[in-house]
Amino acid sequence: MSTATLPVLTKTPFSQSRTMSNRQYGTVKWYNDQQGFGFITSDFGGELILRHQSIADADSSLKEGMKVSYEAIQGPILLMADHVQLEE
């Protein structure tokens, strides 16, 4: 019988989310100003949740198709975009 120890999987609390990688790029899939919520499609594939609080310039209004850069962080369930900035 093996006595090897199995790894313990833990979930990082949302308040302690860590940055998964450096700055990444993507496109706004859709964004609802009234709800302050939307999605970004990563240039590498996949989607991230976009929240109003994560937009670096609070006066910016995001629209479908806009190019953005962001930092990917692990949210409670899905990856989230943080420190979102418009790219020209």
UniProtKB/TrEMBL annotation:
* Gene Ontology MF terms: nucleic acid binding
The residue ranges of the CSD domain are 23-86
> Matching Gene3D superfamilies, A to Z?
Nucleic acid-binding proteins (2.40.50.140)
**PROSITE patterns, A to Z:** CSD_2
- Point out the coiled-coil segments of this chain: none
In Swiss-Prot or TrEMBL terms, this protein is called CSD domain-containing protein
Source organism per UniProt: Aspergillus puulaauensis
